[in-house]
Amino acid sequence: MPPLDKDAGAVSSSASTSSTSTALPAATANTNSANTINTNIDSEKRQPRETNSDIDEEDEEEHDDDDRDTDDLDTSNAQHATSPSREKENGNSNDTPGVLARVISRVSSRPKHFDPGPPPDGGWEAWIACACTHFVIMDTWGVINSFGSFQTYYTQLLGKSPSQIAWIGSFQIFLLFFVGTFTGRLTDAGYFRQLLALGTILQLVGIFTTAQATQYWQIFLSQGVCMGLGNGCLFCPSLATLSTYFSKKRSTAIGIAAVGSASGGLVFPSIVRQLLPRVGFPWTMRVLGFVQLATLLAVNAGLRQRLPPRRSGKIVEWQAFKEPQYAFYAAGSFFCFWSVYIVFFYIASFSRDIIGMPYTDSLNLLLVLNGVGFVGRLLPNYLADRFGVINMFIICGFYAGIAAMCWPAVKSTTGLYVWVVFYGIAAGAIQSLFPAGLTSLNTKDLSKAGVRMGMVFTLNSVATLTGPPIAGALVSASGGRYIGAQMFTGSVLLIGSCFLVCAKVALGRETGKGWHARV
Length: 519
Prior knowledge:
The chain has helices at 13-46, 57-82, 84-90, 95-108, 124-145, 147-158, 162-188, 192-210, 216-243, 250-279, 281-302, 324-339, 342-355, 359-371, 373-387, 389-405, 413-440, 449-477, 483-511. By secondary structure, the chain is mainly α. Keywords: Membrane, Transmembrane, Transmembrane helix. Its main location: membrane. GO terms for molecular function: transmembrane transporter activity. The chain crosses the membrane at residues 165-183, 195-213, 219-240, 252-271, 283-303, 326-350, 362-380, 387-410, 416-441, 453-475, 487-507.
């Protein structure tokens, strides 16, 4: 009601009585309206909020403030309801709508966390994410799996031992896994786009500066450090994002993306084989850089993060290692990755030093090793959706270990090609099944996929950093013979497979399905 005019005393008593009787129903109506809105607000508060499991402290403080405002509103309503004449005296009848407006505004502006629902498990957006991750793995693991061609050239160009040259490639893999610890958490926090852009820049700067390098330390910094950092910013965030688009078809989708390693393993060595003798090392590396530029631009345009950011959380979730299946799986992947890349680094030099193959034929052998990865990455992942990811990982781990133990028996060119086909399928399966199995252990909260994946990546970074140089040191200590490196490769793969069996048993006990669980 508007405040009373100063000349109101001149009005007759009958008019005053009439005004009072008119004001009382109006005040009562305002009170009833306020109580109705207040009841709606209380009802809204009692309804379950559609938020993620992790609600920030700032949101909680906002809810508390809203409750205090509502309590103040209750007190104000009570005062107006019991003393309507006081409204007339003080002229405060317009304050109630003002308080209501503030409370309603705060309730309506309360931030709501977007819930994207369950993984779509298909559709255009999901398969575009799969294709983009394929390009990411092509530009990261494809280059790494092609290091055998660089190993041979660097050994001749720089005059260094195989173990020294291997540090370039192994440090690149080390950074890919190690940086994944931090980029995984940053991905969960919503910085996926920034990581993708940073990784693209580092990757391109690294490969174009490698083209200008002429000394060992220059190649180590450009190809080993700069490209390794770029790999870490690209690989783990992309893989963690892809896993949120699929549930039942997750292993198949990751397998299709992992085929990018074979794609790069065919494209990049082929470019090196054709261009290196003709245009030289600098322009060969520039052509590789242009291929990466085109594919990474497509990745930045097409890959999107599906889940909302999870701002709170730790970089390392130590609680995960208290889960036996997670701890055993981490140990098994460590041993498998400690030795699986030794063949990719040394098969070309082995074919020349022991079998007597020429340089160009040794690169063809590397192409075959990467080419059969198409089968190794697709077929086991397809079967994993039906028989269990960890089950297939165990089979392929023992398969690779037995194949590596048979490596010393290879004495001819034909036998080497046959052996490379068998080992290449198993090695490709290990590389693609590893992330799929890791995400299968984290089905309860996909928002932690980046953190948990990054933790295992850190362990694998130590394995990949030391494995190839250890093999190179064993070759040098044996006077150029490869028997020590071959036995090291096979035995470590078998140990890793045994840890994977322990992970399967622990997971079977937790689910209550026992040994026959499809995990």
